[in-house]
Amino acid sequence: MMRKMKPSLLGLISTLVIGMSVGVLAARAQTPKASSAHAIQQPLYSDYKGVRLGMAAEEVRTKLGKPAMAADDQDFFILSQTETAQIAYDAAHKAKAISVDFLQGIGAPDYKAVVGPDIETRPDGSMHKIVFYESLGFWVSYNRSVAGVPTVSITIQKMFDR
C-alpha cells in the first residue's frame, strides 16, 4: 500500500524518477563497443549498500530499511535529503535493477570506482558511461546531469533476455 506524500516530496521524487528514466533510456540506446573495458568481467561496482541483483525484496528492505513507497514491482527509498534509491523487482520479487540518485552529487562515489577511468564528458559538464558485463548478465551506468538540479545517477541492471 502506498503512503500519501507531501506535494514537495512528490515533486522531488517525480524529478528523480524522470532523471533516472532518461539515464536508463540513454543507456539502452547505446550499443556495447568492443574494447578492453568490456572484456574485463570483474565489475568495479556491483552492489549498493550490500543490495545486489537477484536479492529478494525482504532482503533489500533489511539492508535499506522501510521504503518510502513500496509496491510488488519496486521500492523507493529516501536515504537522506540528497540520496534516494529505487529497486525494481521481477515477477519472483527479486531485484532486477538498482538505481541510486545523489542530488548535487553529494555522497556519490567517484565515476572511476563505478565505470572505470574513461568517461564521456559533454561540453556542459554532464557525464555518461555504461559498462556491459555480458558474461555476468548485467550492466552498470554512471550519469551526471547538470541541468535543473545536478544529479549523479548510478544504475545496475540485469540484461534483458534477447
Q: Separation of termini?
A: 33 Å
Please estimate the helix content.
Answer: 10-25%
Query: Strand-and-helix sequence, N→C?
Result: HHEEHEEEEHEEEE
Rounded Rg? 15 Å
Poorly predicted sequence stretches spanning 5 or more consecutive residues: 1-38
Contiguous helical run count: 4
Tally of domains: 1
Largest sheet: 8 strands, antiparallel
Shape: globular
Concise summary:
By secondary structure, this protein is an alpha+beta fold.
Question: Would you write up a description of this structure?
Answer:
Strands 3-4-5-6-10-9-8-7 form an eight-stranded antiparallel sheet, with helices on both faces. It has a two-stranded antiparallel ribbon with strand order 1-2. It is an alpha+beta fold and 162 residues long. It has one domain (7-158). The protein is built from four helices and ten strands; from the N terminus they run H-H-E-E-H-E-E-E-E-H-E-E-E-E. Mean pLDDT is 81; it is low at 1-38. It is globular, with a radius of gyration of 15 Å. It is 25% helix and 32% strand. The chain has helices spanning 7-29, 36-39, 57-64, 111-115; strands at residues 47-48, 51-52, 69-70, 74-78, 83-89, 95-103, 120-121, 127-133, 138-145, 151-158.
Q: What secondary-structure arrangement, pairings included, does this model have?
A:
Blueprint: H1 7-29, H2 36-39, E1 47-48, E2 51-52, H3 57-64, E3 69-70, E4 74-78, E5 83-89, E6 95-103, H4 111-115, E7 120-121, E8 127-133, E9 138-145, E10 151-158
Antiparallel strand pairs: 1-2, 3-4, 4-5, 5-6, 6-10, 7-8, 8-9, 9-10
